[in-house]
Every structure is written in C-alpha cells, then in structure tokens.
Design goal:
heterotrimer; A alpha/beta (about 475); B alpha/beta (about 290); C alpha+beta (about 90); B: about 290 residues; TIM Barrel; 2 domains; eight-stranded parallel β-sheet; two-stranded antiparallel sheet; 12 helices; about 45% helix; C: about 90 residues; alpha+beta; 4 strands; about 40% helix
Chain lengths: ~475, ~290, ~90
C-alpha cells in the first residue's frame, strides 16, 4: 500500500528541499500550545537554512524561540494575522529589517492564492492524519476542532507536509484537508500541549462591567431591528462579546426568534445557542474550546469553513456577505471610530486584526464593546496608536457608561434613542473618561517601521513603529 | 439595591453603571479589620470624585459594637450620602446613638440637620421583634432592611435558598415598616451564581409587600428591577382607575365603579402609587 | 513636621485599577519609586500626586514604593493617604 509517511521531520524537510530565501507557513489552531512551529524552525536552523519568510496565521508566546531564529538570520520576514505580546515586545525593539506584515484572516488566504505571499512549503499540524495525508483537527489527543486557517496553505503551497501525533490507517473518513494536496506525512510524539491549545481569551467572564456591557449590546441588537428570524451573528473571543451570546440566547428564546447562523470563532456558548434552537447553523473557522471541537465532529449543522470561505475578498462570496451583527473588541478607539487591536497604549504589538477588519468591513452592524477606561487608560482617544480597522466600518461603540453611534449610522442612533438606550456622542465619552483618568501623555514612539497593517482588500492601512527602550 | 465591597476600587468605580437604583457601599462585613481605615478613605475619595448622581448612595458603616463606626461616619457623612445603613440594629437606642453622632458630624460640616437618612439593617431575632420601635426611633429612618444571613445564624438555623426560615421575619418587618410609614427592603438572594432562582425569590418578596430587594451580584440587578416594576397591565389598570375617578367627580358621583367593581380609597391609593412608580421608571404616560 | 515612624503597606496586590504602596522611613528626604502599567501616560501625574499628599501631611522623611496597576487619581490618593497615616502610626 502506498504511503507518504517519512521517517522524521528532517527527512521531510530534505525531501521538500527547503532552501535559503523560501517562504514557509504554519497555522495557529494549536494556539499557545503549539509545538510544531518551534520543532520545524529548530530543524531548519540546525540544517543551516537562512533568510526564510515565515507566514503563520498567528504567533504566540510559546513561539519565543523564533526571536533567536530572527536574530541569527534564519528568519528575515514574518507574515501574521496576530502576534502575542511576548513576541511583539521583541519585534518592537526593531530586531527585523523587514517590517512584519499583518493581514486579516480573510486577506491571508487571498494573498497566498493571488501570489502576493506565495508559500513554498506548508507545515500543517494535524491532530489526526492517515498515511496519505487525509487529516483533521476534530479528533486525536491534540484535537482543536476546525482547521480552517490551514486550508489555503494546503491548497496553494508548492509542497505540503502534514505533521501529526495520531497516525491512523488509510482512509480517514472525516478528513478536513485531503490527500490530493499533501506531499509528506510525519509522525511525532506530540504536536501540542492540550492546556495551551484551549487557553487564552475564551473563558466565560464574571466581570460585572463586561456583563453589563454585554447586556447593553443585546439591547442594541433588539433596538436595531435586526433581531428577527434569519439573523446571523458573529462573536469574537473577548469576555464581553462571549457574554453577549449568553444574553442573546435568553432574548431569542423569549421572542421565539430563530437566527440563520453564527460564524467565526465558535465556543461552547455558541454551541449552546445553536442547540437551544436559536440559530440553524454554526460556521466554524476556529473552535475556541473542546466543547466546540466535540460538537464540530458530531453535529451536522456545525460546519468547518476555510479562512477563505469565512471572510476573504478573493472568493465569489464569503460568510461575511450575509452577516447582520458582529461583536468586536478594541484596545483603543478614536473619535473617528478607528479601532486598534494591534498595539497597546505603549505601542507594543500585542494582537492583530484576525477577523476584525473583514467583519467590520462587510457586516450590517459592527459593534465594538469596551469599557470607558481600562487601568486608567481612556478607551476613546483623538487618534489610535495603530489603525487596525477603519472607522468608516465601525457602527457602534458600547461602553458601560454610554453608547456612541457612528455619525454615518443616523438610522441606528434614532432607533437606539427611541428604545431609551443611553446614547452619547463619542467626544462626550472621551471627555467623561478624561475627567476620571486625566489626559494621558502620548507614549514615546520610535522611528523605525516594524510592522505594516493591511486591510480586508489587501490595501495599506497603517504602519507600526518601534518602541524606544525605557531609560 | 446593590452591595459593593468597600475595599475594591474597580467595583466602586463602576458601581453607578450596574443598573441598580441604589448602591450600598459596604465598610462592614466585606472589609477585613485590617483594611477598615483604607476602605473608608477609598470609598470617600471615589464617591467625592466620580459622578454618582444617577444613583442613590447608601453606605453601610460598621456596627456600634465595633471600634470603627464613628470614624466611618466622620469620613462619610460630609459627602452627604442619601442614607447610612446601620448594621445589627436591635433597639431604638441603637438608632438614636447613630442619629446623634450623624447630627454632630452634620453640624460640624455645616450640613443641614437631618439630611442624611438612616436605613436600619435588622439582622437579629431581637431586632425583628423590635422592628416597629426601630422604625419609629428617629425621623431619619426612611426604610427598614432585612439581613437574613446573620438573622438565620441568630435563630440557630441554616440559611436556605427556599427561605422558609426567614418567612416570619419577612412578614413581620414588612408589617412593622408599613405601620411606621417607611419603606422596606428584602435581603440579598443567597446564591450569586443562580440566575434563575433570583426571579422566584424577588417575586415572592414583592408579593409580601417589600418595596424592593438587594443583591450582592450585579447580574441579578435586572431581575430585581423587572420583578419590582409594575407590569404593563397594572399600569394600564391604574390609569383607568384614575380616569374613572376623575369622570365620577365630574359627574358628581359619590361612588365610582370600574368594570362592575367599586373603586374605594385603597384602590385609588394603589393606582396612584403604581403610576408614580411607572413614571419614575419611564413607563408612565405623558 | 510629621514623621514616618514605621514601615506600612496598602492596596490589593495584583488587582488592576489599584496600586500597592509601601512606605518606610527615609534618611534622605522624600524618595518616590514608581513602577506603573501606565508610566508613559501618567508617570508624572502619579509622582505629582504622591508629592502633594506627602506635603498635605507635612512629611519629609518618606520612602514610597508605588507599584501601580492603573489606579485612577482618587484611588491613588486614597492609597497614599492610608499608607501615610499608617506610617505615621495614626
């Protein structure tokens, strides 16, 4: 029987002929529990390969060894959709000559496909694979659910290597990525640490301020007139946005409304809504917890979608085209409604747009939920440190102290006021926060460009600058 | 009414945005003896700096048998909170002691005498028996408040979610408060994480005659507000009653009936109260 | 002139929107050490508030170590007042 299994990672890399200057790719479904990126990079470094471009859908603190590979010239360019602070802190010191390219979850597959960021070798961590490379994230000890962000890599890379810690007999009947795209299969002991895979921003919040904002968000959905049969809904990973799903369930059950679908990062909270009959389907590009991963395997109305199908502009349509309401987070928002999810108030990279930009661009009502101030830092500024998502695409800001509506959405503003919601001008929210916190001094900004942010259509949105060392 | 621990800056800062009509800033049980000094300074600073005009401010000071209550009042009364909640209120003398000290502080700071009200927290068997006398003990008393945790401990029984053990206290305190002409508030629901049980508990408290109910969980504020708000049917009926009375008066009728039922004085009074409550909640007719 | 006579501490450790302050007697006049999540944005304002509170109590021998996790000014000042009073043995 034919097999694509090779004896170890080194052999796969040699067969794939990774050479200086190539572009290699990874997905981030193992999140902060991922072992594969480090495993591959260490091997490549040992083989003496230099000048690589690493195109990863996201990098987390667990990927800290990457910093040394950058310093040693193994890696000279990064393309990511998200970067955690542990890595971002180093990048902001200016350790790379080429700025990091930040894309949205939709634009990454588009640029891989259209040749702007072609991939030579894709390394795909798979919790289960058969001997010919039919693989999935839905089962195995390192299961994470949807493998949506890796699909573009599998379909477009010149060479595709699947790395698994659960090699099964051919054929795997529930494959998400199929053998016709795969060149080699490598079995290893462990592709990830289950604790890290499910950790992060997905825990259910008990913070009263967040819960309060979530309740307000649901009132806004009701007031907008969008809460009706066929409604579609997107939630992100933030505490308030996930709590909103919980309150939404109560309202939908009470009113007997049946929505169409929930899309995006799917959590157990989303699964509950679908099981309760509030939504007909779940379109899952990333499963946030084991409950969601288990449901993806069992529930025929819970479907796995690729990043391209999820939110890309390159396809003929995406899940975004029918999206009514989205709940988004923000680290900063300015009086023109521009949102920053890339850098903290000191300018240090600690995130990325993920789906934020795609969602805001297309959906009917994009709602940002954030407290008036966080640890003394007002959420509303004159200018955000980094523009991640352009203000023209953000419709509503919900804080615990009032709701601001983008002047472009006079219709929503009128509906909210008629519903008795606490609508305020965004300048008023800024003034309220500054009265409590004082006016923040701008953080010092370096002059080296360390990152570039691209938008939903691949357009330039903003630059990220280095951060000067503290004295 | 929402309880907020007085040693937690974040919760105090955001207290006005939780949807409660009144917030009880607590210097007593939620604050450890080692932090009594810092908590009263913290509560004082935040209340005097941020905008809490949207809520009624209540501060629970420490009890008379503690060494802290006078220092608490020294710091808090000058802020002119609406109400001081006095814990472990057992006798009229307890209230008189608090009232006398509050008056001293008012005088010292040039605050109009009697502006700071008192809400006795009744949480012992003796306090329940004396509820009427406590309600009558001072002009400052505007409401009685039932504290079921300490009360059930005093009864030497277990506090349960069903609350059979506090049934007598609830009925007695409501009767005493109404006899004194003051408002009356129910104890917090026991389980801060039970989002269903709160509805039944609030509905029961309302059925007994409580003006409102308190909570230690911001998550329960909406359930309480909705439970204690008049329903649309109640509001509509109240307006019909008032309209019928006005019509009867215009026609010079001595006895007015609505849908075959006689409208007597208590019915009118209830209708007026319902409308007042509805208007306060923005549910009234313009 | 008032004196700081003993070491004291105030504030919830590891709680956002709060700060931990340690006070102790100093031989070199007032010294303020600041670590803050928002040092770039509010460092000067925090130092100014600390100096102001020390002045209010007429203290000239305090070493303050402030570990700030984003406390707003009225919280910071409440913590300063409490720790100064404790340090004075009031």
């Amino acid at each position: 029987m034919a097999t694509k299994v090779v004896s170890n990672l080194k052999e796969a890399i040699e067969l794939a002929k990774v050479t200086d200057g190539m572009s290699i790719s990874f997905h981030h479904h193992l999140r902060n529990g991922d072992h594969v990126l480090n495993m591959v990079m260490d091997e490549l470094a040992a083989m003496g390969v230099k000048n690589l471009t690493v195109n990863a859908s996201a990098v987390f603190d667990v990927h800290a060894p990457l910093i040394d590979h950058i310093k040693n010239g193994v890696v000279t360019k990064l393309c990511v959709n998200y970067m955690s602070k542990g890595i971002g802190t180093h990048i902001c010191k200016g350790i790379m000559d080429t700025p990091v390219e930040f894309r949205s979850h939709g634009q990454r597959p588009a640029d891989i496909e259209n040749g702007r960021t072609p991939i030579d070798v894709a390394f795909i961590a798979a919790p289960t694979s058969d001997t010919m490379g039919n693989c999935t994230g839905k089962m195995g000890k390192s299961r994470f659910g949807s493998i949506g962000y890796a699909m573009a890599d599998a379909m477009n890379a010149k060479t595709v290597i699947v790395i698994t810690d659960n090699l099964v007999e051919y054929p795997l009947t529930c494959a998400s990525i199929t053998e016709d795209y795969v060149d080699y299969v490598v079995a290893v002991d462990e592709i990830g640490d289950p604790n890290g895979i499910m950790s992060g921003t997905t825990a259910q919040t008990r913070d009263p301020v967040r819960l309060r904002m979530a309740q307000t968000a649901v009132k806004c959905i009701e007031a907008s007139g969008l809460l009706k049969d066929g409604m579609s809904f997107q939630t992100g990973a933030g505490g308030a946005t996930m709590a909103a799903a919980m309150y939404l369930k109560d309202v939908m059950l009470e009113k007997g409304v049946v929505g169409s679908y929930i899309v995006g990062g799917i959590s157990t909270a989303s699964v509950d809504l679908q099981k309760a009959g509030c939504f007909r389907a779940l379109q899952d590009v990333q499963s946030f917890d084991l409950g969601a991963a288990a449901d993806l395997l069992e529930n025929p109305n819970h479907i796995e979608v690729s990043g391209r199908r999820y939110s890309s502009s390159i396809g003929k349509s995406s899940c975004m085209n029918n999206l009514d309401v989205a709940m988004l987070g923000a680290t900063e928002i300015d009086v023109d409604f521009n949102v920053n999810v890339h850098t903290d108030s000191n300018g240090i990279i600690m995130g990325g747009s993920g789906g934020h930009t795609d969602i805001a661009e297309i959906c009917n009502m994009a709602v940002v939920i954030a407290p008036l101030f966080r640890n003394r830092l007002p959420i509303v500024l004159d200018h955000v440190t980094t523009v991640s998502t352009k203000g023209e695409n953000i419709d509503v800001l919900i804080t615990e102290s009032g709701i601001a509506v983008n002047p472009r959405r006079q219709d929503l503003k009128e509906k909210f006021i008629a519903a008795g919601l606490n609508v305020k001008d965004i300048h008023e929210l800024k003034a309220m926060a500054e009265k409590i916190c004082g006016v923040p001094q701008p953080a010092p900004k370096g002059d080296k460009i360390v990152g570039e942010v691209f938008g939903h259509w691949g357009e330039h949105v903003d630059y990220i600058y280095s951060v000067p060392d503290k004295e | 009414m929402l309880f907020i621990p007085g040693a937690n800056p974040k919760q105090i800062m955001f207290a006005a945005t939780m949807g409660a009509d009144s917030v009880i800033f607590d210097l007593e049980d939620s604050v450890s003896p080692l932090e009594k000094d810092s908590a009263r300074i913290l509560v004082r600073n935040i209340l005097s700096t941020l905008d809490f005009s949207a809520i009624e401010i209540i501060v629970r000071v420490n009890s008379l048998n503690s060494p802290y209550w006078q220092a608490d009042l020294d710091e808090i009364v000058p802020l002119k909170p609406a109400i001081i909640m006095t814990p472990k209120s057992e006798t009229p003398d307890d209230i008189k002691t608090f009232a006398a000290y509050i008056e001293q502080v008012e005088e010292k700071h040039g605050i109009e005498k009697g502006s700071v009200k008192i809400m006795p927290l009744i949480e012992t068997a003796l306090g329940i028996e004396n509820a009427f006398l406590i309600g009558k003990s001072s002009e400052r008393v505007v409401a009685l408040f039932l504290g079921a945790e300490d009360y059930s401990a005093d009864l030497q029984c277990k506090r349960t979610k069903e609350g059979n053990e506090i049934d007598y206290a609830r009925k007695r305190i409501v009767n005493a408060a109404r006899a004194c002409g003051v408002e009356v508030y129910d104890t917090p629901f026991t389980d801060a994480h039970d989002d269903e049980g709160i509805w039944a508990d609030a509905a029961y408290a309302k059925s007994l005659g409580f003006t409102g109910k308190s909570s230690i969980s911001p998550r329960h504020v909406d359930a309480i507000n909705i439970s204690f708000s008049p329903s649309q049917a109640e509001i509509d009926y109240a307006y019909e009653v008032i309209a019928a009375i006005a019509e009867g008066k215009a026609k010079g009728q001595g006895v007015v009936a609505l849908k075959g039922k006689m409208i007597d004085a208590p019915v009118v009074l209830r209708a007026e109260r319902t409308i007042a409550a509805a208007e306060q909640l923005g549910l009234g007719r313009k | 002139m008032n004196k700081i006579i003993k070491m004291a501490q105030v504030g919830n450790v590891d709680q956002n929107a709060d700060c931990v302050i340690v006070i102790e007697p100093s031989e070199n006049g007032n010294e303020i050490l600041l670590e803050s999540l928002v040092k770039a944005q509010y460092g000067d304002a925090i130092i100014a508030s600390a100096q102001d509170e020390l002045k209010k109590y007429d203290i000239t021998n305090a070493k303050l170590t402030i570990t700030d996790r984003g406390a707003i000014d009225c919280v910071l000042r409440a913590r300063l007042e409490a720790v100064i009073k404790r340090g004075m043995g009031v």
